[in-house]
Amino acid sequence: xxxxxxxxxxxxxxxxxxxxxxxxxxxxxxxxxxxxxxxxxxxxxxxxxxxxxxxxxxxxxxxxxxxxxxxxxxxxxxxxxxxxxxxxxxxxxxxxxxxxxxxxxxxxxxxxxxxxxxxxxxxxxxxxxxxxxxxxxxxxxxxxxxxxxxxxxxxxxxxxxxxxxxxxxxxxxxxxxxxxxxxxxxxxxxxxxxxxxxxxxxxxxxxxxxxxxxxxxxxxxxxxxxxxxxxxxxxxxxxxxxxxxxxxxxxxxxxxxxxxxxxxxxxxxxxxxxxxxxxxxxxxxxxxxxxxxxxxxxxxxxxxxxxxxxxxxxxxxxxxxxxxxxxxxxxxxxxxxxxxxxxxxxxxxxxxxxxxxxxxxxxxxxxxxxxxxxxxxxxxxxxxxxxxxxxxxxxxxxxxxxxxxxxxxxxxxxxxxxxxxxxxxxxxxxxxxxxxxxxxxxxxxxxxxxxxxxxxxxxxxxxxxxxxxxxxxxxxxxxxxxxxxxxxxxxxxxxxxxxxxxxxxxxxxxxxxxxxxxxxxxxxxxxxxxxxxxxxxxxxxxxxxxxxxxxxxxxxxxxxxxxxxxxxxxxxxxxxxxxxxxxxxxxxxxxxxxxxxxxxxxxxxxxxxxxxxxxxxxxxxxxxxxxxxxxxxxxxxxxxxxxxxxxxxxxxxxxxxxxxxxxxxxxxxxxxxxxxxxxxxxxxxxxxxxxxxxxxxxxxxxxxxxxxxxxxxxxxx
Length: 717
Prior knowledge:
The chain is mainly alpha-helical. 76% of the residues lie in helices and 4% in strands.
């Protein structure tokens, strides 16, 4: 039809309609990705508009012509032409064409990954997008979206969220529901990156509600996946699976390989979190079994990488190497340097597990070199520390140099977990070169930092628990809203019945008996409805109370060992220390599994978890029911014995030590070191008492491990 219009306008020598037809054909050809034909039509349209003196249409069409250059990645030509059209637009003076000209230059910078330059252009364009005209307002919203995407690439999370909020406000004002729904989804993602899980969940749910009102299955699939990821972050894995699986089914229905791969990877990741590795493996295989040309290369590499990690932890080293090498090659081809560094590091981990130290060191060094090339401080740390660990005993000087560099970087990026890892390795390195004083100093720093990290973890756990409670609250509110809607509908039915009764009363007033029977029937029905409603509300209340009790229990326990957690330990000890005079006999024992890291490195983390559960069981059965057994963190436990003098505590602990020494855990034997202290030694706070037990524990370690040491004043000096 557009071509026919063009032929007729040329035949009738109507240049205005000819230009309009060329412009329309340019848009249609561009949508069909016929770039050369699109460029031809836009250029012809702009020339005619220029000849007719229609500057505004000339600028708008020429901007579309420049977009065709961007589609072909001809950035140099696009930039030159953008500069020319910006100059012409500013001479013309109308704000909207100026904004369009500036925006196309911003898009050129964005496509070239010059995000700072793109942001400058978009911010300048915002100043020209004024007025309430719908076209202008929509362009303003899209410019805020482009601005948000640029900030997102620069990982400026706050400005990303702020720009998306501005875009959402504009789309809401002009009631563009499709753009509202999609922006709510991207805004939810931005808030998730900021750690604002409650806010992210709100935006995500609002986006899904809007999607129910429109026909945008592609956007709804992305929104379902976004909601699932948020639920994964707050630890509600069943909810996460529910939403992502809905998205997965949609992508299967429309045979969208890219969507199937992304959702399969997400489901695999959730099953990995749940330690259901075979389920995870099956979903990652869904991705790698898809035609490679139909799947995003990075998505394919991600599935291979995660499968390699599962194989590594399962001891399937050859399979792990084959998959991680495939992922590594893809990342090299895609110039994904950060992931290239990551896969090199995973490959080093595999060689280390195989005891091939030489190959492991080569790949740790390669990972480190790439991390330095891209100036990724966190990836430098992650490569340096295990590399240093491999060098201990081979080249202690280089190991210490790498570890000290890691400490500097860890402090810079505020990564306390990597600082702790570096202190542990420094302690080993200094011990390897017989510098015991320095080794002890690093051990003390390790203990101090470990306590800080535990506090940070507890704070994070509180945030996640709050997010889960908030999610539960929202679900309850939704259930109440549905129930209210149902009751309102029942009320309407009731009123309609009453109206009908009234009409019948007028017609058959003489049949009083029939009317009374009908009224009684209605009363019985209403009574049953009321009873059902009361029963439903009571059931919901009991369910909520049960959930709260479960949350309280979970908040106090370590999920792996079912021991109390560190926060609960201090709560209970603080209660005991309120009245020291009436406290009586009170002993604290710190327990550490000897060479636990070697268990994980040699047998894998699944066996390591079995060891932790086994030790916890021995500790819990070795003390009285009223005594306190705590997983203090990692491979460290704490016992609190009330009414027990130090000599009794030593006998109890010696019995436990022997039982641990004689036990097998998945075919593995371990020993434990113990540090014992008592309130008799004048500690005034729980922290002082635990510190005394820590020092005694460290003495047991120094004396060759698998020992029980009672604290004395010499240890504190």
